[in-house]
Amino acid sequence: MGPNAHDFIPDDHIISKGHNMNILKKIAPAVVLVALVAAAPLSAQYGSSNDADIVQTAAEAGSFETLLAALEAAGLTEALKGDGPFTVFAPTDEAFAALPEGTVEGLLQDPEALAQVLTYHVVVGTYMASDVAGMEHAETLQGGHLSISASDYGVRINDASVVAADVEASNGVIHVIDTVLIPGN
Known about the structure:
The protein is an alpha+beta fold. Helices cover 44% and strands 21% of the residues. The termini are far apart.
Protein backbone atom coordinates (compact mmCIF):
# COMPACT_ATOMS: atom_id res chain seq x y z
CA MET A 1 0.00 0.00 0.00
CA GLY A 2 1.33 3.45 -0.95
CA PRO A 3 1.82 6.50 1.25
CA ASN A 4 -1.14 8.50 2.48
CA ALA A 5 -1.60 11.98 3.92
CA HIS A 6 -0.72 10.79 7.44
CA ASP A 7 2.78 9.92 6.24
CA PHE A 8 3.50 13.55 5.31
CA ILE A 9 1.15 15.75 7.32
CA PRO A 10 1.08 15.88 11.12
CA ASP A 11 -2.21 14.64 12.64
CA ASP A 12 -3.04 18.09 14.02
CA HIS A 13 -3.04 19.49 10.43
CA ILE A 14 -5.44 16.92 8.90
CA ILE A 15 -9.05 18.06 8.61
CA SER A 16 -11.90 15.59 8.75
CA LYS A 17 -13.53 14.41 5.52
CA GLY A 18 -16.84 16.02 6.50
CA HIS A 19 -15.13 19.35 7.07
CA ASN A 20 -13.42 19.06 3.67
CA MET A 21 -16.80 18.54 1.98
CA ASN A 22 -18.21 21.62 3.70
CA ILE A 23 -15.27 23.68 2.46
CA LEU A 24 -15.71 22.29 -1.07
CA LYS A 25 -19.41 23.16 -1.05
CA LYS A 26 -18.57 26.72 -0.06
CA ILE A 27 -15.83 27.28 -2.64
CA ALA A 28 -17.26 25.28 -5.59
CA PRO A 29 -19.27 28.21 -7.05
CA ALA A 30 -16.17 30.41 -6.90
CA VAL A 31 -14.05 27.75 -8.61
CA VAL A 32 -16.61 27.42 -11.42
CA LEU A 33 -16.76 31.19 -11.83
CA VAL A 34 -12.95 31.33 -12.03
CA ALA A 35 -13.02 28.61 -14.72
CA LEU A 36 -15.55 30.61 -16.73
CA VAL A 37 -13.62 33.85 -16.31
CA ALA A 38 -10.47 32.05 -17.44
CA ALA A 39 -12.33 31.06 -20.61
CA ALA A 40 -13.57 34.63 -21.12
CA PRO A 41 -10.48 35.78 -23.08
CA LEU A 42 -11.47 33.17 -25.68
CA SER A 43 -14.61 35.20 -26.31
CA ALA A 44 -12.41 37.93 -27.76
CA GLN A 45 -11.56 35.64 -30.69
CA TYR A 46 -15.26 35.23 -31.43
CA GLY A 47 -15.89 38.96 -31.47
CA SER A 48 -18.05 40.67 -28.94
CA SER A 49 -19.92 43.77 -29.98
CA ASN A 50 -22.90 45.19 -28.19
CA ASP A 51 -23.92 46.96 -31.42
CA ALA A 52 -24.29 43.77 -33.49
CA ASP A 53 -27.12 41.28 -33.05
CA ILE A 54 -26.51 37.57 -32.44
CA VAL A 55 -26.45 36.69 -36.15
CA GLN A 56 -24.06 39.54 -37.02
CA THR A 57 -21.82 38.70 -34.06
CA ALA A 58 -21.65 35.04 -35.15
CA ALA A 59 -20.89 36.07 -38.74
CA GLU A 60 -18.09 38.41 -37.64
CA ALA A 61 -16.51 35.61 -35.61
CA GLY A 62 -15.92 33.44 -38.69
CA SER A 63 -16.30 30.17 -36.72
CA PHE A 64 -20.03 29.65 -37.25
CA GLU A 65 -20.47 29.35 -41.03
CA THR A 66 -22.35 26.04 -40.72
CA LEU A 67 -24.60 27.38 -37.97
CA LEU A 68 -25.40 30.48 -40.02
CA ALA A 69 -26.16 28.40 -43.13
CA ALA A 70 -28.40 26.14 -41.03
CA LEU A 71 -30.24 29.13 -39.54
CA GLU A 72 -30.88 30.43 -43.05
CA ALA A 73 -32.06 27.01 -44.31
CA ALA A 74 -34.45 26.69 -41.35
CA GLY A 75 -35.79 30.23 -41.78
CA LEU A 76 -34.56 31.29 -38.33
CA THR A 77 -32.09 34.04 -39.22
CA GLU A 78 -34.58 36.89 -38.87
CA ALA A 79 -35.86 35.53 -35.55
CA LEU A 80 -32.35 35.68 -34.06
CA LYS A 81 -31.94 39.19 -35.42
CA GLY A 82 -35.06 40.18 -33.47
CA ASP A 83 -35.27 41.97 -30.15
CA GLY A 84 -34.74 38.90 -27.99
CA PRO A 85 -33.17 38.72 -25.59
CA PHE A 86 -31.68 35.31 -26.37
CA THR A 87 -28.96 33.11 -24.97
CA VAL A 88 -27.51 30.96 -27.75
CA PHE A 89 -25.32 27.94 -27.10
CA ALA A 90 -23.57 28.13 -30.46
CA PRO A 91 -21.74 25.09 -31.84
CA THR A 92 -18.65 25.86 -33.89
CA ASP A 93 -18.03 24.66 -37.43
CA GLU A 94 -15.83 21.94 -35.90
CA ALA A 95 -18.76 20.76 -33.79
CA PHE A 96 -20.92 20.36 -36.91
CA ALA A 97 -18.06 18.59 -38.71
CA ALA A 98 -17.87 16.07 -35.85
CA LEU A 99 -21.45 14.88 -36.45
CA PRO A 100 -21.82 11.50 -38.17
CA GLU A 101 -21.42 11.69 -41.95
CA GLY A 102 -24.58 12.84 -43.69
CA THR A 103 -26.21 14.34 -40.58
CA VAL A 104 -25.79 18.00 -41.56
CA GLU A 105 -26.84 17.33 -45.15
CA GLY A 106 -29.89 15.38 -43.94
CA LEU A 107 -30.93 18.17 -41.61
CA LEU A 108 -30.49 20.78 -44.34
CA GLN A 109 -32.95 18.75 -46.46
CA ASP A 110 -35.52 18.73 -43.62
CA PRO A 111 -36.09 22.34 -42.48
CA GLU A 112 -38.59 21.30 -39.77
CA ALA A 113 -36.15 18.86 -38.11
CA LEU A 114 -33.35 21.41 -38.57
CA ALA A 115 -35.44 24.07 -36.83
CA GLN A 116 -36.02 21.68 -33.91
CA VAL A 117 -32.27 21.12 -33.52
CA LEU A 118 -31.38 24.80 -33.84
CA THR A 119 -34.05 26.10 -31.46
CA TYR A 120 -32.81 23.52 -28.94
CA HIS A 121 -29.67 25.71 -28.72
CA VAL A 122 -31.62 28.88 -27.81
CA VAL A 123 -32.94 29.98 -24.42
CA VAL A 124 -35.16 33.05 -24.08
CA GLY A 125 -33.47 35.66 -21.89
CA THR A 126 -29.90 36.80 -21.41
CA TYR A 127 -27.95 34.44 -19.17
CA MET A 128 -24.32 35.38 -18.67
CA ALA A 129 -21.73 32.77 -17.66
CA SER A 130 -22.18 33.51 -13.97
CA ASP A 131 -25.93 32.90 -14.34
CA VAL A 132 -25.49 29.68 -16.34
CA ALA A 133 -22.99 28.29 -13.82
CA GLY A 134 -25.68 28.49 -11.13
CA MET A 135 -28.36 26.73 -13.17
CA GLU A 136 -29.16 23.01 -13.32
CA HIS A 137 -31.33 23.18 -16.43
CA ALA A 138 -32.81 25.63 -18.91
CA GLU A 139 -35.89 25.46 -21.10
CA THR A 140 -35.11 25.96 -24.77
CA LEU A 141 -37.06 27.75 -27.45
CA GLN A 142 -37.69 24.27 -28.93
CA GLY A 143 -39.48 23.31 -25.69
CA GLY A 144 -36.94 20.80 -24.42
CA HIS A 145 -34.69 21.18 -21.42
CA LEU A 146 -30.92 21.47 -21.38
CA SER A 147 -29.03 19.86 -18.54
CA ILE A 148 -26.38 22.19 -17.11
CA SER A 149 -23.53 21.10 -14.89
CA ALA A 150 -20.64 23.10 -13.54
CA SER A 151 -17.42 21.71 -12.10
CA ASP A 152 -13.79 22.57 -11.66
CA TYR A 153 -13.36 21.67 -15.33
CA GLY A 154 -15.91 24.18 -16.63
CA VAL A 155 -19.54 24.20 -17.65
CA ARG A 156 -21.31 21.53 -19.67
CA ILE A 157 -24.55 21.89 -21.54
CA ASN A 158 -25.81 18.31 -21.98
CA ASP A 159 -22.69 16.66 -23.47
CA ALA A 160 -21.15 19.89 -24.79
CA SER A 161 -18.43 21.92 -23.11
CA VAL A 162 -18.63 25.71 -23.08
CA VAL A 163 -15.36 26.77 -24.72
CA ALA A 164 -16.00 30.53 -24.70
CA ALA A 165 -18.55 32.44 -22.68
CA ASP A 166 -20.24 35.82 -22.67
CA VAL A 167 -19.89 36.83 -26.32
CA GLU A 168 -22.28 39.74 -26.02
CA ALA A 169 -24.63 40.94 -28.73
CA SER A 170 -27.25 43.69 -28.87
CA ASN A 171 -30.05 41.16 -28.41
CA GLY A 172 -28.47 38.64 -26.07
CA VAL A 173 -25.38 36.54 -25.51
CA ILE A 174 -23.58 33.65 -27.18
CA HIS A 175 -21.80 30.86 -25.32
CA VAL A 176 -19.63 28.86 -27.69
CA ILE A 177 -19.92 25.06 -27.36
CA ASP A 178 -17.90 22.20 -28.84
CA THR A 179 -20.78 19.83 -29.66
CA VAL A 180 -24.07 20.13 -31.54
CA LEU A 181 -26.96 19.52 -29.15
CA ILE A 182 -29.57 17.07 -30.39
CA PRO A 183 -33.02 17.07 -28.73
CA GLY A 184 -33.77 13.83 -26.93
CA ASN A 185 -30.12 12.75 -26.61
